[in-house]
Design a protein that fits this description.
- With 263 residues, the protein is an alpha/beta fold.
- It has one domain: Glycoside hydrolase/deacetylase (TIM Barrel, Alpha-Beta Barrel), CATH 3.20.20.
- The strands form 4 sheets. Strands 2, 3, 6, 10, 11 and 12 form a 6-stranded parallel beta sheet that branches.
- Strand 7, helix 5 and strand 8 form a beta-alpha-beta unit.
- Helix 4 crosses helix 5 and helix 6 packs parallel to helix 7.
- The longest helix is centred in the middle third of the chain and has 19 residues.
């Protein structure tokens, strides 16, 4: 595991401004989504249980080649975790198959791996897994242009609040939820600002355990933030539920766009 490659201000601005697929929340905010990347088993068992306690569900960005492995965030998911999450109503979403960086391989290679990952997930889930997150948060402009229209959404790690009038489905902004309770004040402030703006706030983390990795958070922090979101009156939705709530036809995808790139 590693953090994403640093994105300088100029590159970030280009990523935000180009190849956009903009929709409006159309009065459906404020929304908060909790997402998990890779994902460690603790994200399913501990993180999932917290969300379920509040009647909410999460989005689990899953790279199938990581199944049964372990790393800094602890043991990663097993097939039984995927099945249990689906049974409980959580969302599985794409994260490539091999957990590769869009900035480390060719555009064509990355797109092929994203397709492979989506197909592998859909074989297990039996339904579309059209939402996606870039491994390491690494985004390349050619990939954003080609992959974006084919997915219901693509999420990065650029922080901020989506919308209410300019939600870029090709690069959703998301905010890290790392560490312990010393991070609660910042997270609570984001929730309050999201409520004021009636936007869509997305959090992401990896493991949820008492001694978290640099990429995870403690159960205390996670429960406090989920509880704060619930108390604020924001709707806690999976990424797919949020998109369905907005009412974007076909998730905003352009069928066949990705196949044409790979042909």
């Amino acid at each position: 595991m590693r953090l994403g490659s640093p994105i300088n201000a100029v590159h970030r601005k280009m990523l935000r401004r180009m190849h956009r697929r903009v929709v409006s929340l159309a009065g459906h905010g404020p929304i908060v989504s909790f997402t998990f990347d890779d994902f460690p088993r603790s994200a399913a068992s501990t993180g999932g249980a917290v969300l379920e306690h509040y009647g909410a569900r999460g989005t689990y960005y899953t790279a199938m080649d990581l199944m049964n492995r372990s790393g800094e965030p602890g043991n990663l998911f097993h097939e039984s975790d995927l099945e249990e999450l689906l049974e409980k109503g959580h969302e599985l979403a794409g994260h490539t198959f091999s957990h590769i960086s869009a900035r480390a391989v060719s555009c064509r290679e990355f797109l092929a791996d994203a397709v492979h990952g989506r197909q592998a997930l859909e074989e297990i889930s039996g339904s579309e897994c059209g939402n996606f997150a870039y491994p390491f948060g690494d985004v390349a402009l050619p990939v954003k242009a080609a992959l974006g229209p084919q997915m219901s959404s693509s999420r990065g790690i650029i922080p901020g609040i989506n919308g209410p009038d300019d939600v870029d489905l090709n690069l959703l902004m998301a905010n890290s939820l790392y560490g312990d309770m010393d991070q609660f004040v910042h997270a609570k402030a984001l929730i309050a600002e999201n409520k004021r703006r009636k936007g869509w706030l997305i959090f992401y983390t990896h493991d949820v355990q008492a001694q978290p990795s640099p990429y995870g958070c403690t159960p205390a922090l996670f429960e406090a933030v989920v509880g704060s979101a619930a108390e604020s009156g924001c709707r806690i939705l999976t990424v797919q539920q949020a998109i369905e709530s907005i009412g974007v036809p076909n998730g905003g995808r352009s069928p066949g766009a990705l196949r044409s790139v790979l042909a």
